[in-house]
Specification:
Blueprint: H1 15-24, H2 33-57, E1 62-70, E2 76-85, E3 91-100, H3 106-120, E4 125-130, H4 134-149, E5 161-163, H5 165-177, H6 181-195, H7 198-210, H8 227-239, H9 241-250, H10 252-260, H11 269-292, H12 303-318, H13 323-340, H14 349-355, H15 361-372, H16 375-398, H17 406-412, E6 415-418, E7 422-425
Parallel strand pairs: 1-4, 4-5
Antiparallel strand pairs: 1-2, 2-3, 6-7
Helix pairs in contact: 3-4, 5-11, 5-13, 6-8, 6-11, 7-9, 8-11, 9-10, 11-12, 12-13, 14-15, 15-16
Length: 427
């Protein structure tokens, strides 16, 4: 109960809980919080041992994601999560470590990741996904050295560093939001004004009824640093635009306070127009982020498709007749190209995951690369993709996984299997 509901250990010593337990069974002796804490820790050790055994016997490689942040108490934390396919072909996501770190410097983060992997006896790492902070480049460089020393590397850890796709999308969108920042700010202030008071909210609901708005969406206030929450706020506010106009007529304080206290005034017709155009555009990125952020299904084979979708959206807007939307798209494309426009910086595993998807294969990926990139970059990417694909195949062929039968290995030496889907007998 304490673990599932995230309750403090001292909950068991609360008067209400003890009374409840006594009513259920007077004979039950409620343990102290120290006993409960000890029991929880023992449960953790049992589960850790079990997971350790699963990871040790697992035939697949492990991918890691890590995140670091500073709490309100100015304590640095880091979370390390493992993603792998178990021997029953089920996707697993397990938090290996949640700990405090002395700092967010790259070397410190790298050492903490290494310490955690040594503790869990994990050395078969395929990729580590991190956010795009410069310190993480140092952390990945440190882990490359260590994994190379462990002799469990794949292609000398050339593709160990996987940049967070969701965060790159976040950077691209945030650059676009700057073009309609004032309009978004006015809508945000209007939503905040109404949600500050139950009386105002009740009056606003009456305006919604009077305008005969059938939409069931409710006003929600965003977190300015999280663009997806901003999209949800704008999406709800746009469906209630007429109610905002009626509310302005019925509550004089609405206009006065927004002008005086906030200094921006209430949303104008142009503001709603700007927000509507941007919100429609933002909706595509929102759906895209949901797809690549899934945790109950494999996402690696989706990254390339989403990369193509983002590129297509930006190209379409860059050719728009609307000068404002065109300028916004050009700015966003600059950010897009910073991470996905350089052939040397793109992790080839993004493309290879699609090549190995039997629905698409190599020809499809090469065709799409040529569609979204300039000729020079496309040729470079295709060349890198083919070289990496062959190199990966050769590495796995020479060093087969533990679960492959030795007899199959010896018999397979008589034939060569090309990664393009056909086996040729050397004789």
């Amino acid at each position: 109960m304490l673990i599932v509901d995230q309750l403090p250990y001292k909950f068991v010593e609360g008067e209400g809980f003890r009374f409840f337990c006594n009513m259920m069974d007077p004979r039950f002796q409620v343990p102290s919080w120290q006993t409960v804490a000890r029991d929880c820790f023992e449960m953790y050790l049992v589960e850790k041992k079990r997971l350790k055994s699963v990871l040790k016997n697992c035939n697949s490689r492990v991918c890691l994601t890590t995140d670091a942040w500073t709490s309100i108490q100015q304590i640095n934390y880091m979370c390390l999560t493992a993603h792998f396919i178990d021997n029953d072909w089920k996707l697993q996501k397990k938090i290996l470590n949640f700990c405090s770190v002395t700092s967010h410097k790259g070397e410190e983060v790298g050492k903490m990741i290494e310490k955690c992997l040594l503790e869990w006896e994990i050395d078969n790492i395929l990729a580590i996904t991190v956010d795009n902070a410069s310190s993480n480049d140092i952390a990945i460089a440190y882990m490359k050295r260590k994994i190379n020393e462990w002799k469990t590397r794949v292609l000398n850890c050339r593709y160990l560093h996987m940049r967070s796709v969701a965060q790159i999308i976040n950077f691209v969108v945030c650059d676009g939001m700057k073009f309609v920042h004032e309009s978004i700010t006015r809508v945000r202030h209007a939503v905040r004004f109404i949600k500050q008071s139950p009386t105002r909210l009740l009056k606003f609901k009456k305006c919604v009824e009077d305008e005969k708005i059938a939409n069931k969406k409710l006003l929600c206030l965003d977190v300015p640093t999280m663009w997806n929450s901003t999209f949800l706020m704008l999406d709800a506010a746009l469906s209630l635009e007429n109610a905002f106009e009626r509310y302005a007529e019925e509550d004089p304080h609405y206009v006065i306070e927004l002008c005086e206290r906030e200094g921006n005034g209430r949303p104008t017709f142009d503001d709603w127009s700007n927000v509507r155009r941007f919100s429609e555009f933002l909706g595509s990125f929102y759906e895209l982020t949901l797809r690549v952020s899934g945790t109950s299904y494999v996402t690696s084979n989706l990254f390339f498709h989403e990369l193509v979708n983002v590129s297509s959206l930006l190209k379409e807007l860059c050719a728009s007749d609307d000068p404002e939307m065109c300028s916004m798209a050009l700015k966003m494309k600059d950010k897009y190209d910073k991470y996905w426009g350089n052939p040397e910086k793109i992790n080839m595993l993004i493309f290879i995951a699609v090549v190995l998807d039997p629905r698409y294969k190599l020809d499809y990926v090469e065709w799409m690369i040529k569609e979204i990139y300039d000729e020079y970059i496309a040729l470079k990417l295709v060349k890198n993709l083919r070289e990496t694909l062959n190199a990966l195949y050769e590495e796995y062929r020479v060093l087969p996984p533990n679960n492959i039968n030795k007899e199959k290995i010896s018999s397979s030496k008589d034939e060569t299997f090309t990664p393009y889907g056909e086996a040729r007998n050397q004789s």
